[in-house]
Records
---
Amino acid sequence: MEIKAAVSILAALAQESRLRVFRLLIRHGEAGLAAGRIASAVGVPHNTLSTHLSILQNAGLVTSRRASRSIIYRIDFDGMRGLLAYLLEDCCRADHASIEPLLASLAPDCCQPNRTGDLP
Amino acid sequence: MEIKAAVSILAALAQESRLRVFRLLIRHGEAGLAAGRIASAVGVPHNTLSTHLSILQNAGLVTSRRASRSIIYRIDFDGMRGLLAYLLEDCCRADHASIEPLLASLAPDCCQPNRTGDLP
DNA sequence: TCCATATGTCGACGATAATCGACATATTGT
DNA sequence: ACAATATGTCGATTATCGTCGACATATGGA
C-alpha cells in the first residue's frame, strides 16, 4: 500500500460520524445496512451522511449495492486488512509472520452480525 | 477507549508527514530519535515538525525525553495497541481472544531498531 | 557571560474539510 | 403519468488544519 492510500483510509476514519458508521457496519457484517438506516442510527441528515459514505467508499473501506429503492452499504474487509497490515508492517518486521494469523482471522466470516437497530 | 480518543489518534496519523514520522519511529523502537534527525529524515522545517510531534504526542502515540540539547521521541506502544484493539473490538467480538496474541506481540521488545539514517 | 546548538511557541495566511438547504435522480406502487 | 420514498449532487458558509517566518526558551561549551 502506498502512503497516500493509507492517509486516505486514516482520514476517512478520523471523523466521529464516519468512525461510528464504520463500526456500525462492522457489526452488521456481510448483510450491510441501508443508507437511511445508517443516517438515523448515527443521527446525521441524509445528505451529510451521503458525503461521509462516499468518503468511506473512496478510501476502500465500504462497498455499496442497490436493493430496490435502498442502497446497502457494507464493510470492505480487504480495505481493513490492508490498513492493519500497513500499520503493522514496520513494527513486527522481526517476525512479520506473527501478524498473518490476525489478518487471516479478519476474514468476513469472522464477524457475526448481532444487533440491527442500535445506536452506537 | 472513547471514540473521541480514537478519532484523535486516527487524525494524528491521517497526514502524510506525521505518518512518515510514526513509521520512522516504529523502526527505531525504544532508542527513539532526536527531533532534528526526524525533521531532516522526513524533510520538513523544524518548527513545522514540532507542531506535528506535539499532535502525535497529544494523541498518545509518541513520548519524549530530553537528552542534553536534543529531545528524543519514541513510539508509545500502548497508544498503538489501544488503537488496534479499538479498531478490532467490534470486528472480532465473536472470538475476541484471537486478537490478544497480536496485541501482545506488539510489546516494545518485538521491534528491532535496524537502520538509523534512512529516508522513508 | 556570551555564543552556538536544538527545539518550542506565536501569529498570520492559504488550503482543506464539515455541514446543510435546495434541487436532482432513481425506484416502486397506484 | 403521478406521487411517495430513498438517496445523491451542488453550492455556499463556517470551521479547522498545515505551513512557515519571526521570536522565545533551554542546554552546553569557550
---
Amino acid sequence: MLDERKLAVLRAVVEDFVNTNEPVGSRALADRHRLGVSPATIRNDMVALEEDGYITQPHTSAGRVPTDKGYRLFVDRLSSVKPLSTAERRAIESFLTGAVDLDEIVARTVRLLAQLTRQVAIVQYPSLTRSSVQHVELVPLGGQRVMMVVITNTGRVEQRVIDGLGEVNETAVNDLRAMLNRAIAGRHLGDVPDAVEDLPPQVPPEHRQMAVAVLSVLLESLVERHEEKIVLAGTANLAAVDFAASLRDVLEALEENMVLIRLLGEAKDPSMLTVRIGAENFHEGLRSTSIVSADYGVGNQSLAKIGVVGPTRMDYPGTMGAVRAVARYVGQILAGQ
Amino acid sequence: MLDERKLAVLRAVVEDFVNTNEPVGSRALADRHRLGVSPATIRNDMVALEEDGYITQPHTSAGRVPTDKGYRLFVDRLSSVKPLSTAERRAIESFLTGAVDLDEIVARTVRLLAQLTRQVAIVQYPSLTRSSVQHVELVPLGGQRVMMVVITNTGRVEQRVIDGLGEVNETAVNDLRAMLNRAIAGRHLGDVPDAVEDLPPQVPPEHRQMAVAVLSVLLESLVERHEEKIVLAGTANLAAVDFAASLRDVLEALEENMVLIRLLGEAKDPSMLTVRIGAENFHEGLRSTSIVSADYGVGNQSLAKIGVVGPTRMDYPGTMGAVRAVARYVGQILAGQ
DNA sequence: TCCTGGCACTCCGTGGTCCTCAGTGCTAAT
DNA sequence: ATTAGCACTGAGGACCACGGAGTGCCAGGA
C-alpha cells in the first residue's frame, strides 16, 4: 500500500509544510527534496496518500497539507528525536544551575523550555505521592490552632492550618510531632496512610482528639492536592500562530489547570515521550494543537511531567528533543538537591 | 476653553467609542445622547477638542476617537467609579468565601477579577514587609542543614534551606528557635532587623556561627523576595481585543513578573485607585493598554496590590468599580483569617 | 455671538470584474 | 511504472466604480 517512496513523499510534505506554513505542491517537492522522480509521479503518490487520509487539500488547486493522521505517521515512523546542539545543551545547564529552591527550579525550567521550543511550556510540580517525607513540623499558633508543615525529599513544602482542636497543649504537640516523625520520616507518601494507622491508640486519651484531627488533615493534604500545581510559560509564542480554533479558545484551555493536568496525565508509556496530535486531544479548544510531554524524575522514579503545547504544524523532532533533554536535566538537578 | 458642553461631548465620544469600537461621528452622537444641539454644533466642539488633543481622527472622513489625553480627562473629571450590581456583589462573596489558605484566596481572587472585568487580572501576594511574624520554625534536616520556615500573620509561609552550618546541634537549634521567637514573634517584618541585631552576643560562642548564618538568611529572605510573587488570570480575554501593538508584545510583557511588579508599584496615591493610560506606561509592549490598580490590605494597612490590564479603550468606570470592590473584599477575607 | 441647515468634498469599504498563477488530474507516449 | 504535455480549477491580487459616513465651511437666523 504505502511503499518507501510514498512515505518519503509524506515526510517531505510534513517537513516543508512545517517550514513554510503553506500547502506544498508537487513541483516544489521535486525541487527541494532529491526524490529522484518527476512532479507527475509525486502527484500520483499524493493521490494515494490523500485517499488514505494522510494529507489533504485546502481547495482544489492548492498544494497538500498533512492531516492529523499524517503527522501521527510522521512522528511514529518517519522521524527521529533530534538531539540538541551543544550550544543548546550549554544553555540548559547555565539556565538551571544556581536555582536555590524548588520553586525556582520549576520557574526556570518552564521558561527554559518555552525558550528552546518557542512554544508554550508546561511544568508540573513534583508529585507528592511519589516522594517521601523528610520531616513533619507542628507549630502551635496560639488559640486552638496548629500549623502543620510537611517537608518532602523533593524540596516541596506543604502547609496547612488546622483549627478547632480544643485546648492545644504544647507538650502534647511535641509528643505528637516526635511520634509522627518516628512513624513516617523517610517513608514514601504513598505508605503514610498505613504507617499512621495504628498511632491514635498510642496517644493518651486526653489528646487523642487533637491527634486524630491532625492525622486526618495530613492524609487529606496528601491525596487531595497532590498533583494540582502547574506552571506555564511562553504563551506569547502563541500570538505568532494562526489557529483553526480561535486563539481565545486555546488560551482559555491553557488557563484551566485541570485540563492541563489531564493532558499531561494521559501519557501512554510512562517515562517515554508522548505526543498527542490535534483531535487526539479531548479538549475542544486544543483540537488544533499538539502536545509533547515527558516524565521527569529521580532515578527511574517518575515524579511528574513536563510538556509543550504548540500548533499541530510544529517541528516534532526538535520539540521532542528539547522536551526529553530538559526532562533529563531537571531530574539530575532534583537528584542533586 | 473647555465649557460644559465640550466636556459632555468628550464624555459621549469616550462612552460611544468604548461601546462600539468604531470612530464616532457627530450625527451618531446627536442621536444617541441628549446633548440638545445639532450635529453641526457638535462638529465645532469636536474641532476644539481635537485642537486640544483630546480626540483624533483615524483619517479625514472618519469619526473621532479619544486619545490617551482624552481618556485621562474622562477618568479624572468626567466619570465616576461605577458601583457593582448586587448580583456582582453576591458573585464576589460566593466566589471568595470558602478558600482554605492564602494560595487559594489569591487564586480565586485573580480569577474572579478577570471574570468580572473580562480582562486580564493581576494579584500580588501580600507583602511580607508589611505583615508581622507569627512564628519562626527551625528544623534540623540532618547533615549540616537546617530548614527555616517563617509564618506570617497573613498566612504566608516562607521557607529556606540553610546549608554548610558545620555541626548542627539539636539543642542549639532549639535554643536558637526559642530565642528567635521571643525576639520577633508578633513584630512587623520591617522591625525584624533591629530586633535581632543584639542576638548573636547572647548565643554561646560555639554555636554563634550557626546563629549568624541563620540570621543572615532570615534577613535576606525578608528583603529579597518579599514582593516577587504575582498571579495572572484572564489572558484569554486579550484575544478578543485588537491592539495597536502586537498581541505578542502584550503577552510578553505580562510574562515578565518584574514588569508587572513595577507597574503595580507605581501607584501615585496609596490606598486609592490608580489608572495608568496608554503611553503613561513605561513599558513598550503596554503602550496601548491601560492599567487600573488598587491597594488591598487589612484595616488601613496596605499589604499589596491588585490590578487589571486591558486595552486603553476599556470601560473605566466599570473596571474601577470591580477593582475597588474586589480589593475591599479580599481585605476583609484576609482580616478574618 | 452662538447655533444650525445646507452643501461640497474626502476617503473608506464593498462588490464586481479581470487576470495571473500555482497546482491539479488526466491522457498518451516512453 | 514513469513522464511530458495539456486543459482545468480556484484563490488571490489589481483595478475600478460607487455608496455612504463623516467632515469643514458658509451663510442665515435666534
